[in-house]
Automatic annotation (TrEMBL):
Pfam families: Dioxygenase_C
Gene name in the database record: pcaG
EC number: 1.13.11.3
Gene Ontology terms, MF aspect: protocatechuate 3,4-dioxygenase activity; transaminase activity
Name of the molecule in the record: Protocatechuate 3,4-dioxygenase subunit alpha
CDD domains found in the cross-reference section: 3_4-PCD_alpha (cd03463)
PANTHER family, A to Z: DIOXYGENASE, PUTATIVE (AFU_ORTHOLOGUE AFUA_2G02910)-RELATED, PROTOCATECHUATE 3,4-DIOXYGENASE ALPHA CHAIN
Domain Intradiol ring-cleavage dioxygenases residue range list: 35-178
Gene source species: Nocardiopsis coralli
Family: Belongs to the intradiol ring-cleavage dioxygenase family.
Length: 187
């Protein structure tokens, strides 16, 4: 019997481009759904270089602030074709896009949370995904009262969580490290 050395820990690696994307992944709703908006952006590394092999994943409440999940006793309302989940690999320019519906405010233990989308990023060189949130720029009052957003004390850091507007929806660029790094949360 021969002995083999232990395999070293691996980063996310190229597997995410092989096994995680699927054709409907970028579509949390079907194209043509009334009220659908695009969330588009880029992923950059610590040196500011575009990351051409990352994967961006989103999960969110419906427009009424309800989740289709057993932990939400209110249950989701019916929005035909709304999957509440999107997954898009970045392209050669580090860009991604997810078509979805804007979520509603979500009740929380410390008061309502502003409409937001939970965002995870997987990329080479990372042992675990990083998790952040996207907030909407037109929700100023809700954003000011949101307990999670308020927990980020530095105004410049907090600004990395608020999307910009775009002609067909919103722009949310993600910086994994370095100057202008997006705020990520320990979960």
């Amino acid at each position: 019997m021969s002995t083999y050395p232990t395999t070293p820990s691996q980063t996310v690696g190229p597997y995410l481009h092989i096994g995680l994307p699927w054709p409907d992944g970028p579509f949390a709703v079907d194209e043509g759904t009334p009220g659908a908006v695009w969330i588009r952006g880029t992923v950059r590394d610590g040196a500011g270089e575009l990351v051409a092999d990352a994967l961006v994943e989103t999960w969110q409440a419906d427009p009424d602030g309800r989740f289709d999940h057993p932990d939400d006793p209110r249950g989701a309302r019916s929005y035909p074709g709304f999957r509440a989940f999107g997954r898009c690999p970045t392209d050669g320019e580090g860009s991604y896009g997810i078509l979805t519906l804007k979520p509603g405010a979500v009740p929380g233990p410390d008061g309502d949370q502003a409409p937001h989308i939970d965002v995870s990023v997987f990329a080479r060189g990372m042992l675990h995904r990083v998790v952040t949130r996207l907030y909407f720029p037109e929700e100023e009052a809700a954003n000011a009262a949101d307990p999670v957003l308020a927990s980020v004390e530095d105004p410049e850091a907090r600004a990395t969580l608020v999307a910009g507007t775009a002609p067909d929806g919103y722009r949310f660029d993600i910086r994994l490290q370095g100057e202008g790094e997006t705020v990520f949360f320990d979960i």
